[in-house]
Amino acid sequence: MLSAFYRFIRIVYIFIALLGVPANVVALAVLSRGRCGLSICTTRYLVAMAAADQLIILINVVLWRFSSYYFPGVFLHITPVCSLISVLGRVVTGCSVWFTVWFTFDRFVAICFHKLKTKFCTGKTASAVMTTTSVLLSLQRIPYYFTYEPLRVVDNVPWFCLQKASYFTDPGWVAFDWVNTLLMPLIPFALILLFNALTVRHVVFSSRVRRGLRGQRGGGSCSDPEMESRRRSMILLFAISGSFILLWSVHVGHFLYYTTGGADPNHHNDSEFIFLQVGQLLLTLSCCTNTFIYALTQSKFRENLVNAVKFPITSVIRLIRKPDSGSRRSQLKAFPIQMEHNS
Length: 343
Description:
mainly alpha, two-stranded antiparallel sheet, 10 helices, 3% strand, globular
């Protein structure tokens, strides 16, 4: 059973890498141009989320899982190196999660608090928030480097990373683990649900008020630009946060299972191991979905995406046509000279 499951997740991780890497590159290229009809702060959050998702795939999938699956025993599995990879993977995963939280909060403020929107929902604020978040998460994840010990030592070289038994028993490390699990994923999960619920409540209430003021309680055909703008913002917000919540649910469920049920996180039966791996697989898959969400919900993103796809083709066609047009002009210029010589 486990051998078949191992083969299955290897195939899925290959699919994630082949799908996620180009998808995030496309998202970075299209969004960074700033021509998708989104505000500057929204664009910066989405670009940062795409960059974090790309790093997750490169570090956790390409660098770590593929080396473990297909190149066991390479230098990446030396204990100091794999400890560093583990820390970097935790940092970029935390950044991806908290950037999603800040994006949700930014849209919550933009939709629900118009006065605060002009001060908070700016490009400078977004950059400052994400920079501070990245620095704090990097510092907070450093202790993870010291939680690993080598599985074996060969010719005085420590190989592989095994989490120390003291990490699960020492009071200091237990407190550190609880702080980390609160920071990710429990608090982000709760905040995203809270901000979305408050946003829905505000939009439903304000839409009723606006319909009453506009005399449209019984329906009407007049458009409301303000409500249309909010609708587009909500579609993007709920699509991104909903995808995050859905794909992280199994991982959160596994965490709650082994913390409340008293299960040993270092020893799993087959069902618990599959539960753990499926959770990790789905949260890695969440790094591939945002580009498709943008394409489905944002018409200008689709337009820029089509132009980006067509650009190499049109460039090649132009390069092919240029020599032809130049040679035709030279032939036309040479034609009267040849006639003069013949005469």
